[in-house]
Design a protein that fits this description.
The structure is a single chain. The protein is mainly β and 710 residues long. It folds into 7 domains: 95 residues, Immunoglobulin-like; 82 residues, Immunoglobulin-like; 83 residues, Immunoglobulin-like, CATH 2.60.40; 92 residues, Immunoglobulins (Immunoglobulin-like), CATH 2.60.40; 99 residues, Immunoglobulins (Immunoglobulin-like); 90 residues, Immunoglobulin-like; 86 residues, Immunoglobulins (Immunoglobulin-like, Sandwich), CATH 2.60.40.10. It has 3 helices and 57 strands. The strands form 15 sheets. Strands 50, 52, 53, 55, 56 and 57 form a 6-stranded mixed β-sheet that branches. It has a 5-stranded antiparallel β-sheet with strand order 3-2-6-7-10, with no helix packed on it. The N terminus is likely disordered.
């Protein structure tokens, strides 16, 4: 019998157990414990719903959701179903945290397709999807071309056209047929390496396609280019035979456009945000429409392109065109184009018929000149938004023509998909800033932009007006309109960006929402995080968390970017080691500060530099949790307030739990109950000030850990 020392005997037992586990894997194909299909409670998403439709629907469907692999889901006798996902499999790109996007579940089987209502992945507990209406799958056919140099286009071969699990490739002529689209609205993606990917909206009603382009144009990555495409007009106007409807396709680098039927006039026109479509009234048979695209900052522009028009030459009827001839105007001062009779010597026009009486003094103008007209503003005596304009021509024989008229509706804020045209993929200065390109109506003199943070569907923060540095909670803060608005976020989350305009006469537009998932760390794979990613700080000492690039062994941190222009040898003592990766840093001043970090390799060669910003606002107040300790074993913590001067009250809440708590009188310290789940807790406090003002929320973090075993 073999006798071992106790420590050796325990080691042999451990080896024996490991051998048994290994043989289990080899003989029986056991799953690795690390890849268990049983997800933890906080990593699990359970969806429930009910399939509805005509009798005889399949009892099993293939389900598609986010980046997860397709899976089968069974339906019970009442049409109910349940399906589980792991949150990490919905986001395969490896971001630091799951982007709580607005998702939809697609079910398909045997020619039937249905899609659920949208939902957020951060909603707590099981998510009830309600009824999922199943119907016959629809077929989307189209043609894809790629924009080449000089404005020419060619068939785009091998472009992947996809909708959830349904995919197809364009053939040698750029044609495709995509099966499996449900009733209602769908977003179809088109992508190919080297070309910019796009999403197009397609709508089917009663198995008939009523929305979606028949021809789609793609662009090479980074190209400042765009294409106009003629479509049958959505709205036919009997007295506008020369009005045409254009679809707009533009690259990501070309969000601005200008167009005109006269090439010389075009070069003097201003750029405007490129909408998806527009009407243009030529007034007479014309051969071409000229157009040009530009970058957001107007520093780069495409060539001037043209599109041939399919007009038939015929007798031209005299008359006048107001603005673009669409029958709507967005501003009271608009250009006028007159279609004069042959040999006409001049034109006069007015919105009042009495002005055409003899002796009225209405001036004659050159009908070939650039003309405009300003309609009177809306008032008690002029409440209507429909305007009519009259014109009369002086003929070559000295006689007066008949009086012609045209009418328009003043719609300063026409119905549109939204005021936000685009959001660049990457930040501008720091990872908390995004540039929103706005479609500003011509009549708008002022605007206001604010946010709702709506993780899980509930309002997390009340409306707050935008300023570039400070953000007082003033919903009535109106600013002058601007087409590009730098929007600084105060934290990551799911937002509704809300935009509203008003005219000089205080006529207010509808509120235009724009959903936006903001994850400031998504596009920062390396660099550093300052102040926990939070822009505002009540103190000058902020936390720094390093995310060094591969090969980095040291770094230099400074408030003066000029320090980074010197050779590393001049300040070798200032190059510190990567560890520790979390430390405190003093920005030295109140207000806006930039902090720069330069990483170096083992040979003291510079790798790259990163910039972050923080706004130190001592008037926002502060607070401390448990005397500043980083962890707690009890969900009941002590909060010590440090209110700003003049504070009247305060509000305290935990991030992710809710902000709908009342303000209360100031206290020096009090107990606050955290949620009981183990993990990081972000607690926020804000103070009320005289004049119904509120400070920016202050955030402090504490980690709730398991109490050690006795």
């Amino acid at each position: 019998m073999l006798v071992c020392e106790p420590g050796v005997q325990e080691g042999l037992v451990l080896v024996y157990n490991l051998l048994i586990i290994f043989m289990c894997f080899v003989l029986f194909g056991c799953s690795s414990p690390s890849s268990s299909r049983v997800a933890s409670a906080e990593n699990k998403l359970r969806l429930a719903g009910k399939v509805v439709g005509e009798a005889g629907l399949p009892r099993s469907y293939t389900a598609f959701l986010g980046g997860a692999s397709p899976r089968q889901v069974d339906i019970d006798a009442l049409g109910r179903f349940k399906i589980d996902y792991r949150l990490d499999e919905l986001q395969p790109r490896g971001f630091l945290r799951l982007a709580d996007e607005n998702l939809q579940l697609l079910l398909t089987q045997d020619g039937y397709t249905g899609i659920s209502k949208p939902f957020y992945t951060l909603a707590e507990g099981p998510i009830e999807l309600g009824d999922v209406a199943m119907g016959f799958s629809n077929q989307y056919t189209g043609h894809v071309e790629v924009s080449e140099l000089g404005g020419a286009t060619a068939p785009a071969v091998g472009v992947e056209v996809a909708y959830f699990g349904a995919k197809t490739l364009t053939d040698e002529n750029g044609l495709f047929v995509l099966e499996g689209l449900p009733e209602g609205d769908s977003q179809v993606s088109l992508s190919k390496p080297g070309l910019e990917s796009i999403m197009v909206s397609v709508r089917f009603l009663n198995s008939k396609q009523v929305l979606g382009p028949e021809k789609v144009f793609l662009f090479y990555e980074g190209a400042v280019a765009g294409v106009l495409n003629i479509r049958p007009p959505q709205l036919k106007v009997a007295n506008k035979p020369y009005q045409m409807f254009f679809e707009v396709f533009s690259g990501l680098k070309a969000p601005m456009i200008r167009y005109h039927d006269d090439q010389e006039v075009l070069l003097g026109e201003s750029y405007r945000p490129a909408r998806r479509s527009f009407y243009y009234d030529f007034g007479k048979p014309t051969s071409k429409l000229y157009y040009q695209f530009a970058s957001q900052d107007l520093k780069l522009s495409s060539d001037v392109f043209s599109i041939d028009l399919p007009f038939v030459m015929e007798t031209i009827q005299p008359g006048l065109i107001i603005a673009d001839g669409s029958g709507q105007i967005e501003a009271l001062t608009v250009p006028i184009r007159v279609i004069a009779p042959i040999g006409s010597r001049g034109v006069r026009y007015s919105d009042d018929l009495n002005d055409f009486q003899e002796g009225s003094g209405l001036p004659w103008r050159n009908s070939a000149a650039d003309l405009d007209f300003t309609f009177p503003p809306i008032s008690a005596s002029k409440p209507s938004v429909r305007y009519e304009l009259f014109a009369q021509f002086l003929l070559s024989n000295g006689e007066l023509s008949s009086i012609y008229s045209n009418s328009v509706d003043f719609v300063p804020f026409p119905k549109r998909e939204g005021a936000v045209i685009s959001v660049p993929e990457f930040p501008t200065q720091v990872n908390l800033v995004r540039d929103f390109v706005l479609d500003v109506p011509p009549a708008a003199a002022e605007m206001r932009v604010w946010e709702e943070i709506t993780e899980g569907g509930g309002i997390r923060f009340e409306l707050s007006a935008i300023t570039l540095l400070r953000r007082p909670e003033l919903q009535d803060r109106w600013v002058n309109t601007q087409p590009v608005l730098p929007f600084r976020f105060i934290r990551e989350g799911v937002y509704n960006i809300l935009v509203q305009f008003r005219t000089k006469d205080k006529l207010v537009s509808p509120i235009y929402p724009h959903p936006f998932v903001f994850r400031p760390l998504e596009n920062v794979p390396v660099g550093f995080v300052m102040n926990g990613g939070y822009f505002y700080s009540p103190v000058r000492t902020v936390g720094i968390s390093l995310i060094p690039p591969p090969g980095a062994s040291g770094l230099k941190i400074t408030l003066d970017k000029r320090d980074l222009n010197r050779d590393a040898g001049e300040f070798l003592p200032d190059i510190r080691a990567i560890e520790p990766r979390n430390f405190l840093f003093d920005v030295a001043t109140d207000g806006l500060s930039s902090v720069y970090v330069m990483y170096y390799d083992a040979g003291n060669r510079a790798l790259n530099v990163h910039e972050r910003q923080v706004f130190v606002d001592p008037l926002m107040g502060d607070f401390v949790i448990n005397g500043g300790l980083a962890t707690t074993t009890s969900p009941l913590v002590v909060v010590e307030l440090r209110p700003p001067p003049g504070a009247l009250g305060f509000q305290v809440y935990e991030e992710g739990v809710g902000v709908n708590v009342n303000f209360r009188a100031l206290e020096s310290s009090f107990e606050f109950a955290l949620s009981t789940e183990i993990g990081r807790k972000d607690v926020q406090v804000r103070y009320s000030l005289p004049g119904e003002r509120l400070t920016v929320p202050v955030q402090r973090t504490v980690e709730l850990i398991q109490a050690p075993s006795p």
